[in-house]
Amino acid sequence: MSRKLRNVLVAGAVSVLAAVSLAVAVGSASAATTPTATFAKVSEWGSGFEGRYTVTNGGSSTMNSWQVSFTLPAGTTISSHWDAARSGSGQQVVFANLSWNGTIAPGASVVFGFIGVGSGSPTGCLLNGQPCAGGTQPSPSASTPRPPSPSASPSKPPSPSASPSKSPSPSAGPSTSPTANPGTPVAANGQLRVCGRQLCNKNGKAIQLRGMSTHGIQWYANCATAGSLDVLAQEWKADVLRISMYIQEDGYETDPRRFTDLVHNYIELATARGMYAIVDWHMLDPGDPNYNLDRAKTFFAEIAQRHANKVNVLYEIANEPNEVSWSAIKSYADQVIPVIRQRDPEAVVLVGTPDWSSLSVSGDGNGVATITANPVTAGNLMYVFHFYAASHGSAYYNTFAQAVDTLPMFVTEFGTQQATGDGPNDFTNAQRYLDLMAAKKVSWTNWNYSDDFRSGAVFTTGTCATGQFSGTTRLKPAGAWIRDRIRTADDF
Ligand code: IDC
Hints:
Layout: H1 3-14, H2 16-27, E1 36-44, E2 48-56, E3 67-71, E4 77-82, E5 85-89, E6 92-96, E7 109-117, E8 123-127, E9 130-131, H3 185-189, E10 193-195, E11 198-200, E12 210-213, H4 226-234, E13 240-246, H5 256-272, E14 276-282, H6 293-307, E15 313-316, H7 326-341, E16 349-351, H8 354-357, H9 367-373, E17 381-388, H10 394-404, E18 409-415, H11 427-440, E19 444-447, H12 463-466, H13 477-487
Parallel strand pairs: 12-13, 12-19, 13-14, 14-15, 15-16, 16-17, 17-18
Antiparallel strand pairs: 1-2, 2-7, 3-6, 3-8, 4-7, 5-6, 8-9, 10-11
Helix pairs in contact: 5-6, 6-7
Bound molecules: ligand IDC.
């Protein structure tokens, strides 16, 4: 993909504002004729906010790099940021492009963001030394500016040491992190964040997480125990556990207190083993996530509050929306995400996509374009794709392949069998998806770590009651296959 197209897509993927300013820059004769940087608070929660800058090249020459500097009032600091390298000191903040988003074609935009602690707003904004509002310095150099400082080197990844004002962060070490098990995935990677389309670790390196999803914890709690999770972490070498909490089908709605406590406990079990934990709000029927909106707010408020000081929790806010429009899903996400961010501002959020998280493949087929045109308002999030290899051939594969080059994607559920989670395995097609995900560093969790009778449950029926999770004798073919693919070395 050309850089120009990529910049446009990245901007479109993360920002409605970017799309609007892009349209203005291109379509209006009165638009700025120099580069501009526009600030917005995407959401606010009293103690903090998510801030976003949209850098738009309103000039007629390509920009090769950019640097945005501003002042924050005393009492307001930045705790984390994405899609830019940070320098400066104290209340003086400088953000510069990374290697992949420095070039901005005329009319195009790039977006970066940060989490602010406090309630102040930036002042004195300069873009490459010129006023961020643009248009006031018609010097010939204005359209091909160079950032002055060596610290703005575009190839330098965001470094934890570049954030002197960082508030106490769980990634800082053992004193604040209960997850610093030496050698574990969480010890190696710390707090994750979405950078561009990738999932990146605390050092700004793009990584891939691989692991398992539980089955519904209302049915298979005896398959997700301290013993079985020891095996998952130590023998399978899983990076991540997805905690699948159904809402209906005898799930959360029947006893919110009990299910919330179950999830708290699974998060602690994953944390003690150095694994990431995805909290899966496993809505299925009704397919409109708004049906459970109030329940979701209550649940995620408590989960995010309790686990805010952990670095290893990801929030999956809607498993498989279905028979509902993208705009309804987006509206749900735009209401649930601030509830999480208010309590756990740094955590990555995962958002399900239309037609059972198929990116609309099993609907109108336009999911990628629909989402890109109208993305969720918040940053630091990824979109979810699910597939079942024996049911989902090239239409699914091709849409997914397009999506991974367009949007930040996370596969939180897939099987090597049919969409029922049962039937014969298609390992050849499954491997095709896995190869793509490895090449593009798309993280995944496989369905499912239980002894359900279906072929997609990794253990043979009756295994969980015996507690004999170790080794391979109790594994079904899909279990042995996926275990081999989780155990291979990570590239962290
Ligand atoms: C299936 C389970 C099955 C259960 C059913 C109930 O395998 O035991 O009765 O859910 O909802 C999904 C869903 C996931 C499905 C899975 C396999 O997210 O809950 O599990 N699947 O059918 N989407 C596509 C497939």
